[in-house]
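User: For a benchmark we're assembling, each entry needs the component sequences followed by a predicted structure for the full assembly. Here are entry 17's components. Please fill in the structure.
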Amino acid sequence: MGNPERDGAPAETAASIHEFYTASSWIEGAATEQLRQVANLPGVRQIAAFPDLHPGTFGPIGCAVLSERLYPQLIGNDIGCGMSLFALDLPRSKLRLDRAAQKLRVLESAWSGNAAGYLAEAGLPSDAFSEAIGSIGGGNHFCELQVIEEITDDAASGHDLAPQTLLLFVHSGSRGFGTHVFRSVVERFADGLEQGSTAANRYLDDHDRAVAWASLNRRIIALRAAVALRADIRTVVDSPHNVVERQGDLFLHRKGAAVATTPLVPLAGSRDSLSFLLKPTGCKPEALASLSHGSGRKYDRKSMLGRVGSTRSDRERLLRTSFGGRVICDDRQLLIEEAPDAYKNSAHVCDDLVSHGLATCVASLQPLITFKKATEPEGTESWKRQRKDHGRKWR
DNA sequence: ATGTTC
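Assistant: Structure for entry 17:
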């Protein structure tokens, strides 16, 4: 389990790595190799690795890294990316699945709301990537309608959560904002930024704005979905997982690792498996106040193209779930890359965290409608025109 | 992941 605690040890000594998974967990060798590489970066003191660990572009996803130096590449381009959970005041008996799925297609169009006003309210420049506010983006991002399947801890009642409560679960990030911040710093500072330096402070300021932008984005996405479903929402938890924070003279980086200082932390399954709501115990300092953010990828996107969805009938299968749920994803490649088979078993990930004493499971959440991407309109020709006009702005 | 391939 890595090296013992040390203080002012020479740079050639690797940081300690605490792994919160078991021999039966699906952990790729490439991911643990990346962990070792991060442990050998100058100034890295301690690493917590979680059961959703998998290889990433700049380092492993599913870990927290405590370091003397600031490494923007450990956070990546999607600064502030996270999961937000909202409770809907809509009774499940009123929900018509196919009708609701059709209504959620509105999420694909540009948001016509007061982006500037919301941005200003969040302390952000009113023109900061305002065109993209309320948009989900690509990759693993989604907006999912869920229902609470089971309550497994009394903590749920304190949050007014009960079986059959409908939820909106939004996974999205800072879109072009975070990418812009990341590009402005990463090529020039491969060896990380020194604590207290102008570059570090500038990055942290920009980072904090991207985190606020991403959080607002998730809230607007949920508001749009709630309006489409003619319901009100309240926030249950806002849980970022690509963030860095100051801890004294050190930097605590989280990459695909949820901040575990909130009362509840959501753990995303796939669109055809349960998500979970966790209550962090906070009793293991070596976990660096972090938890898994989801089930984690099992197979990379490219290899998924050879695994599923080669026939039309198999792609049609991917638009329905074993829970009787619906998937809105008109993009064939995205449908395949994000197939449920691409992900680890979320229940196993949850069990690993619970058995390591990091969390208790409060609720299991069943997916009903997963919105990914719509290219087919929601039924009116005006939708097509709106898209066309939006695209023209960039010509 | 990405105003992605404007």
